Amino acid sequence: MTLYGLDNLPYGVFSVDGGRRRIGVRVHDDVLDLDAAEAAGLIDARGALRTPTLNAHMAQGRAAWSAVRARVRELARAGDGTLVPLADCELHLPFQVADYVDFYSSAWHASNVGKILRPNQPDIPENWWHLPIGYHGRAGTVTVSGTPIVRPWGQRRGDGGPAFGPSTRLDIEAEVGFVVGTPTRLGTRVPVSGLADHVFGVVLVNDWSARDIQAWEYVPLGPFCGKSFATSVAPWVVPLEALAHAWTPAPAQDPPVLDYLRADEHLGLDLSLAVEWNGTRVSRPPFAGMYWTPAQQLAHLTVNGASLCTGDLFASGTVSGPQREEVGSFLELTAAGPVRLADGSLRTFLEDGDTVSITATAPGPDGTTIGFGEVTGTVVKTA
Amino acid sequence: MTLYGLDNLPYGVFSVDGGRRRIGVRVHDDVLDLDAAEAAGLIDARGALRTPTLNAHMAQGRAAWSAVRARVRELARAGDGTLVPLADCELHLPFQVADYVDFYSSAWHASNVGKILRPNQPDIPENWWHLPIGYHGRAGTVTVSGTPIVRPWGQRRGDGGPAFGPSTRLDIEAEVGFVVGTPTRLGTRVPVSGLADHVFGVVLVNDWSARDIQAWEYVPLGPFCGKSFATSVAPWVVPLEALAHAWTPAPAQDPPVLDYLRADEHLGLDLSLAVEWNGTRVSRPPFAGMYWTPAQQLAHLTVNGASLCTGDLFASGTVSGPQREEVGSFLELTAAGPVRLADGSLRTFLEDGDTVSITATAPGPDGTTIGFGEVTGTVVKTA
Predict the structure, then answer these.
(1) What is the pLDDT of residue A137?
(2) In chain A, positions 13-52, which contact chain B (CB-CB < 8 Å)?
(3) Is B304 an interface residue toward A (CB < 8 Å)?
(4) What residue stretches are annotated with the Fumarylacetoacetase N-terminal domain (chains A, B) (predicted)?
């Protein structure tokens, strides 16, 4: 099964031997050097492809994305341009993150977490069914896949006051992120039909979470140090255009949503995620079952007139399905007890040296499959 | 009383007649053009003063800040360089905001708000006394003083489900912001003694807040659309070095704080804020009484290894004192009933056309006074 054929062509930023960062597109197991292609006159994006991040091209808007993608496809099909073996590439954060927003859009996840963290309250608060709950995360600690995850220290609830030390409940959140290209002016809204005009592409996200720190700090203003130490993204941004065959009806919404969240076509994306813990596949979270869609998230994010910047990243929130083997966090996976990995070891939360890798696929045209690369990270002890 | 004499010298970014953005320093009612000064060889900051934001100079670190400031003072004293009348200048956002963090560090404010929003719970949650509660806000909607504040639309609690429309409880939060210059590496911490090594300067902040939207959305992940539509900052960044005489013992902390928050000198800044509503002074919030200090906020923000970027802004949270005429939000000011403005009108929350201006002063050396400019904004109806 080819995941990176001509129907995918995800964008990234690479370098070779410590050289300059360049924009490239993955074609099978090679990277097509778009910096070199634009320098050689094989493609014209007014210089936007000769920069060290995707931001300049993302800011050019939907028509330019489409035109560049079409030309990249021609080059890839013809074998024109410079192909660099992926194995020779160092991959970097593909875009400069402006604001990072994290949603909370899986009803299964919200219900599971509510039961664990707020056992004496309704598992899903009333407002959750009316709006895609979200909050701002730390943009400056969004890093590319492979960056070591330094176990965070912080406060947690202790006996008679807080305890302090390395997090004892370090967790993941398997998510799908949407990268904004086209900005907006302050005071304007993006309608629920506006997703494809503003979102350049899709990237896998692991929103590392320290549950002990988060549980102590999050009332009343939400997660902070329990999240802000690291968020990893895959090195490949899959163009939204490549996902034309992945749209699928999203779950019906009851109670009915307000008009600004009501789409003519209420669609989610049929991505199948996979989570591996030290090489053992522990979960297959289904993205198609998310209650709130990316189009609704974007409409809600801007309903108050908040402007968008090129490089804004908004993530879905943990992708969890109804089954234990479909959850996107270890808090949920191990709520009923530890899991056994292939090496025989038992795990509840992450130990130093543990590696988590998240991958995903989506249907492409004509029975093909679109791959999203991998977001991986290994936990290291605080120095 | 001079507020902008040689002991202050705050930094800003200005343009004249739609021209290029230039870095300048306010000297009384003029702006000393540092772009021109560096171009003319009067000052040397390796070109950092010839850029359209303060970020490049802020990234140069404490020794460079001190050297440039000393040289600026010589120029201002000697009358060297180009002075542009302030009245001829358009003032811009002085720095590009990286991440924006908002704290919640006034015990009076936390108590007042807790009583209003959570009447059936303890007004201040247990964790509040152990850590400076904070959350990430939207960096992309931080704008310079004078930018119109478009009244946000959104969801609020209604009868049998959410209501939707323009916010009916639009409010301010008078705050003091700290602007990070020197960045850090991911996985490292800033000690509580590290403030002056990392913070370039101080800026007034108005964190506009839609209380009806916020009250409905904020459980469980904190404020989002109720805040993200606009945050205004004053056009002048007062160098931390200019505030050497403004440090004052901060309130004693009981229960005792954890070691990472314990300073040899537990100091706050003696800023006196003033809030005017349509020209009527309605409050004088005292910054010296804040429970958590900026040094503690910075230590907490990085205790988990979160990196700092040049341009990070962290704000104090609403500055409120114990008296009604010392509160930094209208939610608190009008909790017991509307206020009457000088024109005879009554107000509870902001109406379209209302203007709010926040100013502040701090003690300088030898009986002088340091001014912080003004952060002002006028509410306009959604188009």
Answers:
(1) 98
(2) none
(3) yes
(4) 8-94
Ranges in chain B, pLDDT < 70:
383
Rounded Cα distance between A71 and B41, Å, is 48
Measure the CA–CA gap between B369 and B366, rounded to whole angstroms: 9
Cα B121–B127–B133 angle (5° rounding)?
105
Reply yes or no on domain A100-380 having CATH 3.40.50.150. no
Task: Return residue ranges of chain B for CATH 2.30.30.230.
Answer: 11-92
Residues of A with Cβ-Cβ distance to B298 under 8 angstroms: none
pLDDT value at residue A187 = 96
Could you tell me if B156 and B162 are in contact, meaning their C-beta atoms sit under 8 angstroms apart? Answer: yes
Residues within 8 A of B (CB atoms), A 160-219 only: 161-162, 164, 186-187, 189, 210, 213, 216-219
Cα–Cα distance between A115 and A124 in angstroms, integer? 8
Beta bridge partners of B184: none
Per residue in B18-29, pLDDT (tens digit) is 999 999 999 999
What string of DSSP letters covers B321-342?
-SSGGG-SSHHHHTTTS-EE-T
| Polymer length of chain A | 383
Q: Which of B297, B376, B375 is nearest to B133 (CA)?
A: B297
Query: ipTM, 2 decimals?
Result: 0.97
Per-residue pLDDT tens over the stretch A317-330: 999 999 999 999 99
Alpha-carbon distances of B53 from A82, B56, B81, B237, B238, rounded to whole Å: 38, 7, 20, 12, 15
Q: Where in chain A is the domain with CATH 3.90.850.10?
A: 100-380
Q: Which two tokens stand for residue B333?
A: 């000011």
Burial (Cβ within 10 Å: 0-12, 13-18, ≥19) of residue B346: exposed
Q: What is the pLDDT of residue B118?
A: 85
The dihedral region occupied by B81, where left means phi > 0, alpha psi between -120 and 50, and beta the remainder, is: left
Domain A11-92 in CATH: superfamily?
A: Fumarylacetoacetase, N-terminal domain (2.30.30.230)
Write out residues in chain A with pLDDT < 50, as ranges. Answer: none
